[in-house]
Design brief:
- The complex is a heterodimer of chains A (531) and B (530).
- Chain A is of the alpha/beta class.
- Chain A has 17 helices and 19 strands.
- In chain A, the strands form 4 sheets. In chain A, strands 1, 2, 10, 11, 12, 13 and 19 form a 7-stranded mixed beta sheet that branches.
- In chain A, strand 1, helix 1 and strand 2 form a beta-alpha-beta unit.
- Chain B is α/β, with parallel strands linked by helices and 530 residues long.
- In chain B, 38% of the residues lie in helices and 17% in strands.
- Chain B contains 18 helices and 19 strands.
- In chain B, strands 7-6-15-16-17-14-18 form a 7-stranded mixed beta sheet, sandwiched between helices. A 5-stranded parallel beta sheet of chain B has the order 9-2-1-13-19, covered by helices on one side.
- Chain B starts with a strand and ends with a helix.
- The relative contact order of chain B is 0.19.
- The chains are: A alpha/beta (531), B alpha/beta (530).
């Protein structure tokens, strides 16, 4: 019997949807299966409390590929990205750092701390822009396999080598430092203001189980600058209607291209015959056949739960079991009766319209990490807050606000106790920390939703609560992501592909894994389909 | 113009460079500030009748080619390789004992974990294969990225071929392990905390990093490249490390080098953008065709060369070269051999004869690092202890012993206070830590010498107190050691060369930087580049 679909995409997260949209546009008959009742995976908007809508998990757009926005015509499908203006960092001594959306204002603000740093900041931005331009093409590349180089792989490596050689001496130096150094060590070479380094470095550790002084964290600093050079489309920002609006726009584009999308359709297992994927079995026992299965869920779920180790080579199973998740963050979503009033900069100014970063010093950040290293959540965590209602009032009833607090560190593996018991204490710690800076916050809270790493796993299918579907450490990047030898979106099972954040170039609302995987699948089918 | 080559510093690398330059027919002049040669590889009398390797205390990484070329054994540098490489005592369980004999080690590990016992030989085998691929790197000059010479293209090509010779599994291991945290690597192989900690210790040795810091596995790869085993074995030199330096110095002199001690170089004199000689603290000037610095890069460029002769960007970059030490040393003269928990008197002589590892878990090592991160020394430091008099009785009066204790973490920059006033407190913390495992130790101490990072800089000239002349991190390695564009032993100042541990392949008593630098210098002289 002929399979019902060309391709089944497992998971309706943003990458699964991107994957489906591109495949459908290429004329394939595509079915997307999502376990939850809503689409989007971690990029989802839900009305958690009556009248209050939240970007429940992922809360900002980061580096959504401009070609994707163009190809899928996302603005026509309702995507609108609003500016997220600057970063405000309150400090405990009453001072603050505010990097506004306006370059001159930012310079003035940084100069309050250090004139040298204010000058260096402009230079730094330029250098990072150059670096970003160098790295950008790598995002949309299928990683070569260095252990058995074929012609294409050699070409790719040569391409990278030549680009690297063309960089100026200073840029080469920066590039290598970015790839290997810790965020703080790297920033030490540029700036002297502690709070500036702490806040910039914080963006390098989001979602990882690393501290700001851990080598390898400098690289993420680049991401912020890659966004700016994407030009026409705003790569960092708040989608109107929350991050779920991105997913819905992509889903709309996919449907328009002919893809079918089903929610509340969890996968029990992937059907494998003679080493090839032939379809899936749903939770309710239904079987659906397809030529190709493309999984956007993480490798542990895909292979250990849905495929089963009996179908896989032992070495591959070892590698998958070694793949590191170890989630390190949680989320607290607050419904507020009004706006928080920060001691360091009172009032309802535009400093509240951007990110509010609780990262007052490098030592604060590092101590937050130390707690997690030994198996407890940070007694004083790093918090990245956003109040989307200031730019998008539709998210809450008039006069009310929603505040999204990304909290790090919250290790999935606790040394003592379990997350269900510690959930409230974790929420309290977050509120206590915020209240040190904005004491009125306690009185404003109408509702609070606390998501521990365990909740992220249970609710969103993010194994061990890792928001990127696996640690973004050097040994799990590029041709090593998710595991050595299988970084080209293929798997040891014929006709089974991976298209989620656990593949190159990794997590964040970027869409690149879904897009790259679609290209790979189309290439393979063009070459004669069955592998 | 003078034809002379002047080498600043008679550390072991400076001496190796001198010996090889002498072999090439040059007559190098080595200038050493202290009264003894050897730099960090020296033997001092610690207490009347007690002699000890003052700083570095093991020589497992010495490049074998150098030993042969310079006939070091005939010149008195005889190595001692105890059967027990590492002994790691355990307060609540059997100790970890790593021996020269792999199957005996494996048998011993069975009491800790049958898994670990089975995996240990595989662990060694995998690293031995990868180490063999990396080995040629150590004596290779890092390639110039912009203008690779035919020679370095050939070298890299050969390396590429060797890499392809690895099976897929080991090839990927090599690529994965480089940037990995050593704690992750250790836990992929072993389940016993103590064994993990022993493995991890090699990755963090001498670095400002904890076992959970990314990139620390590279220490194991380099160790495997140097000696085959990722966990450094114990290799001593009869008469202490000074005997090794003396032998290299003798080889240099025999080849025609001149070595002057007690000569403090104040500056490198630069004329028309090229090194023309050195100025001594005494005011004396010595002309030279080339100047080779065995001092660390920061000391060389920020202390010896006039900033006016260097590009401001280069100065900024060298200013950011990370070279802040976290190591200290405590040396003891002991009235007898201390008893260690879990060690039977009858076997103490052999069990304690290698390196003794103190630091019983990943968390222990990580916490020791945490202290340094915040600018304090660790109250429960990681210790690498040796009792060299067990295998070399000439070092202490009969029945007595010397104990050499390498201590980490003790940061060069203290947040509160000065090292001079914390010195004895550091010594006390070390003795207290060790006493947990060797309870009677205190009563045996006849004399105690404590060397803080401050002493390492002041007395031994290690800039920033860094025993490795700079962090051995991924961004300061190979083509990037000390900096991109000056990793081929040449510097922005024509005629000025580097030959110390701040160049590839880095620190440890290997002699490889000196060997490589000498080769490049001879090459430049032959092609008349300088």
């Amino acid at each position: 019997m002929d399979p019902k679909y060309d391709i089944i995409v497992i998971g309706g997260g943003h990458n699964g949807l991107v994957n489906a949209a591109y495949l459908a546009r290429a004329g394939k008959k595509v079915l997307v299966l999502e376990r939850r009742h809503v689409l989007g995976g971690a990029a989802v908007t839900e009305e958690v409390f009556p009248g209050f809508k939240f970007s429940v998990a992922s809360y900002v757009v980061s580096l959504l590929r401009p070609e994707l926005i163009r190809d899928l015509d996302l603005p026509r499908h309702g995507l609108e990205i609003l500016p997220l203006d600057g970063t405000f960092t309150p400090m405990l001594d009453g001072n603050y750092l505010w990097r506004a959306d306006d370059a001159a204002e930012t310079r003035r603000q940084i100069a309050r701390h250090s004139k040298l740093d204010a000058e260096a900041y402009t230079e730094y931005g330029k250098a990072m822009g150059d670096m970003g331009r160098f790295v950008k093409p790598i995002l949309s590349m299928t990683p070569p396999d260095p252990s058995s180089l074929n012609l294409q792989g050699l070409r790719d490596l040569l391409f990278m080598g030549r680009r690297f050689r063309r960089l100026s001496a200073q840029d080469k130096y920066n590039q290598v430092q970015l790839m290997t150094m810790s965020a703080v060590d790297f920033l030490d070479g540029w700036f002297e203001t502690d709070v500036l380094k702490a806040t910039m470095a914080a963006s390098g550790v989001i979602g990882t189980f690393q501290g700001v002084r851990s080598p390898g964290t400098a690289y993420v600093l680049l991401h912020h600058y890659m966004g700016e050079i994407d030009g026409a489309f705003r790569a960092w920002g708040l989608p109107r209607g929350g991050t779920g609006a991105i997913s819905n726009a992509i889903a709309d584009a996919a449907r328009e291209a002919g893809a079918q999308i089903r929610t509340e359709a969890g996968i029990e297992r992937i059907l494998v015959q003679n080493g090839r994927a032939t379809g899936v079995v749903l939770d309710n026992g239904d079987e659906i056949s397809a030529h190709i299965v493309s999984s956007s869920v993480d490798p542990r779920l895909t292979f250990m739960k849905m495929v089963g180790r009996e179908h896989l080579p032992d070495d591959f199973v070892d590698d998958i079991e070694r793949y590191k998740f170890r989630g390190s963050s949680g989320k607290v979503n607050l419904a507020l009766d009004g706006l928080p009033n920060f001691r360091a900069l009172p009032g309802e100014g535009s400093h509240l319209r951007g990110a509010i970063s609780i990262s007052p010093s490098v030592e604060y950040m590092e101590r937050a990490y130390d707690d997690a290293k030994y198996g407890q959540f940070s007694r004083r965590p790093y918090i990245d807050c956003v109040i989307p209602t200031l730019t998008d009032p539709s998210m809450a009833p008039p006069g009310k606000h929603v505040m999204s607090c990304f909290v790090q560190y919250a290790p999935y593996h606790l040394k003592d106790g379990n997350w269900d018991d510690q959930k409230d204490a974790f929420g309290d710690t977050v509120i206590d920390t915020l209240a040190e800076h904005a004491p009125n916050i306690r009185d404003l809270i109408l509702h609070r939703q606390v998501l521990t790493p365990l909740d992220l796993e249970r609710d969103f299918g993010l194994t061990e609560g890792n928001i990127f579907q696996g640690e973004l450490s050097l040994e799990q990047l590029f041709f090593l992501r998710p595991v050595p030898g299988w970084a080209d979106y293929r798997t040891p099972i014929g006709n089974l592909y991976m298209c989620g954040s656990a593949t190159h170039p990794g997590g964040g609302i970027m869409g690149a894994p879904g897009l790259n995987a679609a290209r790979k699948i189309l290439n393979d089918t063009r070459k004669g389909g069955a592998r | 113009m003078s034809e002379r080559v002047v080498i600043i510093g008679a550390g072991h690398n400076g001496l190796v460079a001198a010996a090889y330059l002498a072999r090439a027919g040059l007559s190098p002049l080595v200038l050493e500030r202290r009264d003894v040669v050897g730099g960090a590889a020296i033997t001092d009398e610690l207490h009347p009748g007690f002699r000890c390797s003052t700083l570095a205390h093991t020589a497992m990484n010495l490049e074998t080619r150098i030993v042969g070329d310079l006939e070091l054994e005939a010149r008195g540098a005889v190595s001692i390789r105890p059967e027990v490489q590492i002994f790691a005592p355990n307060l609540d369980g059997p100790p970890v004992v790593l021996r020269e004999d792999t199957s005996a080690t494996s048998d011993g590990l069975r009491s800790l974990s049958t898994n670990d016992s089975a995996k240990y030989p595989k662990f060694l085998r995998s690293f031995r294969k990868i180490g063999a691929v990396l080995r040629p790197l150590l004596t290779m000059t890092p390639p110039d990225i912009d203008h690779p010479s035919t020679g370095s293209l050939w070298d890299m090509g050969m390396l590429g071929l060797r890499f392809r010779g690895l099976d897929k599994k080991d090839a990927f291991r090599l690529l994965r392990w480089g940037p990995m945290a050593v704690a992750d690597l250790a836990s992929e192989w072993f389940e016993t905390e103590l064994l993990r900690a022993v493995v991890e210790a090699r990755g963090i040795y001498g670095t400002f990093a904890g076992p959970r810091s990314a990139g620390t596995s590279v220490g194991l790869l380099l160790q495997a490249a140097a000696g085959g085993s990722p966990i450094a074995p114990a290799v001593f030199v009869r008469g202490g490390m000074g005997a090794l330096s003396d032998a290299i110095a003798q080889a240099a002199r025999d080849g025609g080098a001149e070595i002057r001690t007690g000569v403090d170089v104040d500056a490198v004199r630069v004329e028309d953008g090229r090194a023309a000689g050195v100025v001594l603290a005494s005011g004396e000037e010595i002309e030279a065709r080339l100047v080779v610095s065995n001092a660390d890069p920061r000391t060389t460029f920020l202390g010896l060369v006039d900033p006016a002769d260097l590009d401001p960007d280069f100065l900024t970059r060298i200013g950011n070269y990370r070279c802040r030490g976290t190591a200290a040393k405590v040396n003891l003269a002991l009235a007898g051999l201390p008893d260690f928990a879990g060690v039977d008197r009858s076997e103490a002589q052999s069990i304690l004869s290698g390196r003794i590892h103190i630091g019983n878990s990943t968390d222990y090592l990580e916490r020791a690092f945490d202290a340094a991160k915040y600018g304090g020394y660790s109250r429960h430091p990681y210790l690498d202890v040796t009792i060299p008099s067990l295998t070399d009785p000439s070092l202490a009066p009969e029945g007595s012993h010397v104990m050499s204790i390498y201590v980490q973490f003790a940061p060069f920059d203290l947040k509160d206070g000065e090292w001079d006033s914390m010195k004895e407190a550091l010594g006390d913390a070390v003795i207290a830590t060790l006493s947990d495992y060797a309870p009677g130790l205190r009563d045996l101490i006849l004399h105690r010498q404590v060397l803080t990072p401050q002493d390492l800089e002041r007395t031994y000239g290690l800039g920033g107190g860094h025993p490795l002349h700079g962090e051995p991190s991924l961004d300061q390695m190979m083509t990037f050691r000390p900096l991109l564009g000056c990793a081929r032993y040449r510097t922005p100042v024509r005629g000025l060369y580097l030959c110390g541990a701040g160049t590839h392949p880095g620190g440890g008593v290997s002699g490889a930087p000196g060997l490589n630098a000498a080769r490049e210098i001879v090459d430049d002289l032959r092609t008349d580049v300088v």
